[in-house]
Design goal:
single chain, alpha/beta, Peroxisomal Thiolase, Chain A, domain 1, about 35% helix, Thiolase_C
Amino acid sequence: MAQAYIVDALRSPTGKRKGGLAHVHAIDLGAHVLKALVERNLIPADEYDDVIFGCVDTIGSQAGDIARTAWLAAGLPLNVPGTTVDRQCGSSQQALHFAAQAVMSGTQDVVAVGGVQTMTQIPISSAMLAGQPLGFADPFSGSRGWQARFGDQPVNQFYAAQRIARHWGFDRGQMEAFALESHRRALAAIEAGHFSREIVPLEGVSTDETPRHSTLEKMAALEPVDPQYPDITAAVSSQTCDASAALLVVSETALKRYGLTPRARIHHLSVRGDDPIWHLTAPIEATRHALRKAGMTVNDIDRVEINEAFASVVMAWQRELDYDPARTNVNGGAIALGHPLGATGAKLMATLLHELERTGGRYGLQTMCEGGGQANVTIIERL
């Protein structure tokens, strides 16, 4: 089978909500990383086959097929098309999968892939977190098929995060300790310059704004997001933020044609579903499935990036997979570094690739929980 290679991976800084990137139009935020991607590599811009971007809540400044509009706003050629993907939190990881599949099928040779989200301008509301699109009623209301299968069980991330914590026996203090370590790792990574190669500064922002010098005492003083879920606070949840990220995925033919040096090979890609009421547990079985398909064990994986939607999600995954926490989200996760929804998949992949290069690791695995009880898994081999 033909192979798909990652030649470059970059991202914007993560702007905190109402922070340094809050005023940047979503199209321009996406254009920023696309322009940098093209400028950093030796492929004529009009020879890109496609642009595939992830984005959630494609309304307002994020509407209108932002993959295409961001490419054009970057001043890049009119002949290159673009398409926008929504697999909820896994949107840009799915965009990477689509790009790799296009290359592996032999139908495309050069694909710009990534994602963008401006959560300051298009906020995720409590309705959205409960599984309801912004501005609309409960999407499950009135569906006889859904009601027949799932009844009135809540499709709610906070409910799921609390349910996971109780099922696996994690108390609030344990989750707060996990969250504090995420911030500690992120701050240490920034201080050591671990993100410097992957970040393309924008609007005077050159580093991630979201990590905090917090304490367990401060976390313990926070009120729950909802009294029904007493262990789930802002401290143990991913941060809303503004960011974009982009990757260059090419074929072996393109490597030779343009004299490119591949940095990683797509070793495996898959996506699986799980119970939508549990909502956030899919990475567990999806990872097991991916390792079986790839003929690997967790011991073969040098680094893991799993999205910290909530502390309980990653803690349950680590327990079930028996994977070393010291090799998981080693530079911090979304609790500290933010979860810009549609951009997170590409953002995590940029960090994973650079971390493998920094440490000399061979295999990296990326996964995340996604709306509807889904999870993508990507395994890359550093070259």
